[in-house]
Amino acid sequence: GINAEYMGILISMSLAFDEYGRPFIILKEQDRKKRLKGLDAYKSNILAATAVSNLLRTSLGPKGMDKMIVSPDGDVLVSNDGATILEKMEIQHQIARLFVDLSKSQDNEIGDGTTGVVVIAGSMLANAQNLLDKGLHPIQIANGYEKACEIAVNHLKSISRELDIKSNANEQLIQCAMTALGSKVVSKHQRQLAEICVQAVLSVADIDRKDVNFELIKIEGKPGGSLSDTELINGIVIDKEFSHPQMDKQVTDAKICILTCPFEPPKPKTKHTAEIKSADDYHKMYLQEQKYFVDMVQKVKDSGANVVLCQWGFDDEANHLLAQNKLGAVRWVGGAEVELLAISTGARIVPRFSELTPQCLGSAKMVKEISFGTTNDKMIVIREGQTSKAVTILVRGGSKTVVDEAKRSLHDALCVARNMVRDNMIVPGGGASELSASVAVFNAAEKIGTSEQYAIKSFAEALEVIPLALAENSGYSPMDYVGNLKAKQISEKNPALGVDCLRKGNNDMFVQGVYESAKSKIQQLQLATQVVKMILKIDDVIASTEYEQTHKSFIEYI
After folding, report:
1. Which of 186, 465, 509, 529 could bond 498 through an S-S bridge, CB–CB 3.0 to 4.6 Å?
2. pTM for the model
3. Residue 248 designated active-site
């Protein structure tokens, strides 16, 4: 009388004994595992990866579309940036997550080209699928892609030009930043914002060492106004206000004291009790507390400071005394901002009042409280500090969503300007460099006698996805347009001919001023090839049924 279900449980487990003779049961989990082998594993992995790449394809170029992502909390994000889109999508599929890491790597290393790198990798995998169906071994495809990548990288180096970042009032550097901003929501004001980014980078750059310290560039956003109101401030902006309404709203020739100790009486570290037996005792304690505040404020005044920036809070008593002594004070300044302020003003961070001396003070031309709109939003601007290295870009925009996307766009443009300071070689944009590399790789493939020739040709074809996507997003017939463009590149021997996305009537990208960092393009190809090789080498997926469900729901979702 044992039922079938109970028999099934008995079959799927076995009895074992530990060293003390105690029995325990081992459950067999294998029947709950899903296993994909060989071509099925490749197809499953490639399908997931190309689904992600197709999602970003429509975001490529100046005519690319934005994506709206709504978080589980209901927060709305509108972005054109590949790395941001993939990060915020919270993808669960394991192979698709490799593409998220791919765009993150490009963002961390270069800062721009995060959409392109995913689109190229997706195209490589889609072409690899055709070769797998024809019977080519995955390792041969991977090796062929590796060789093709090397040919493409060498070709990009050969067509790259050196950019003079100082000539013509940094005009070429501004054009580079404008190319990065062309596909963003801020493209209407791309000239103004590109100039701001270039000024910001050059003001903190060490040209001799070819280095840019990004920590000295702060981006602050404030909803309200227009994107055209965005400005570069030679100093620091902090999202705070003076702690007392009666303090002066503007201090010129400021002597700044930066404190990391609170304006409060010291608190005993151990447990203690204070017995107050009479009114006199209470009065004595009150006077003692007052003395602490008076001494603290006096020490600040004696040092010669007229502005106090404190990392901690103030007691109301201390706040009143500071206002009475005509000392401007700001409380709860963040740790990162404290360090930036110290660098900008030349101040030393003071951890204890006993260490406060006139030598610890920094200086700035002006400390001013500015207010925005009717909401009484306030910010403190510290202009032209003593060392004046740190700068702030204050971004304005119609809504928080616009300001956030503008900040992300500016970050990309800043990264491009920084990359040009580090390595000033450029290649044409608009898909020209990919198309030229594709032709070079295809010609090289003809000279290779092994079956890897097909993988190298497949790589060449995959590179054409960038000009094809740009042409499609710009409203052209992609196959006809790119076919003509390729023929033109070969007949005129001009690798700078690309997709005229803005319909200016000229295909020469150098003439249009559309060019980008050679390092960024080379990094794109190398990263994409590495990830594709990794995916092609996975021939067996052993996972729980949960994996299959994730894969199924992910493909349906995309």
Report:
1. 509
2. 0.77
3. no
